[in-house]
Amino acid sequence: MWKLLIPAALGTVLAASGVAAQSCADGKTLTEGKLTIATGNPAYYPWAIDDTPESGLGFEPAVAYAVAQVMGFEESDVVWTRTSFDQAIQPGAKDFDFNMQQFSITAERDKVVDFSEPYYTAPMAVLVRGGEGLDPSLEGLKALKWGVVASTTALPVVMETIAPSDSPLVYDDNANVVEAMKAGQVDAALFDLPTALYLSAVVLEGGKVLGQFAPDETANPDHFGMLMTEGNPLKECVDAALAILNEDGSLAGIEAEWLQEATGVPLIK
Question: CA-CA distance, 41 to 28, in Å (whole number)?
Fold first, then answer.
C-alpha cells in the first residue's frame, strides 16, 4: 500500500493537522469513521494502476490516500466505490464523499456540484507518432511540423513558446489533428497531458508523449478537483488537507512520481 512519506521536521505539524482535520470531518462523511472515495469504472493508467485504486498506486489513489491520512483516516477506513463520469456530475445525492476522475473545474459544473481546491493542473504535452530519435528539448521541437487547433490554447504555445521553423497547419478540432498525424501530414501536436496520454495509448498507433511543459507555461490550463455533493460540509476539510499537502511539497512529489517518472514524460526545457 502506498503511504505518504512525511519529512521528520514536519511530522509534529502534520500530526496535529491530522487531528484537527479529523475533528472537522466528524459527522460529515457518509459513514461515520469512514471516507468513501469514488473513481471511474474502469480507472485508467496512470491515474490508477491496474484499475485497483485500493492499492494506492497511481496518481489519483496516491493523492486520495494522502488526503485521507492528513484528515486522520487510516488506510482501512478508506472505502472505494465506482461511478461513471456522467453519473457523478449530475445534481443530487451521491454515494461517495468525494470522486476523483480528472474532473475539470468549470463554472457550469460548479452550479450543481461542489469541487475541492485543485489537486492537479494539467500541463500541455507534445504528442508525436513514433518518436524514436526525436529531441524532446525546446530547440528540437522547432524542427517538427506542427498541427494545431485554432480555437485552443495550444496555438499560442506553439507559435510563441516553440516558434517552429515551419508554419503549423491549422485544424478545426482535435480529431482532425490526430488524423493528420496518422496521414503523416504533421509530426507533432499539443494536447493537455491527460488527453495526450489517452491518445497515445488508445487512438494513435505508435503514439508517444514526447514531453510536457510546466503548467505555468499554459494559458487557462485545466484544474482538476475532487467532486462532491453541492453544499457538502466535508469540502472545508478536504481543502485544508490539500493545502497542507501542497505547502509541504507532497502533491508535487506525487505528481513527479506518477505523471513524470512513471509515464516517462519529461519536462521540456
Answer: 25
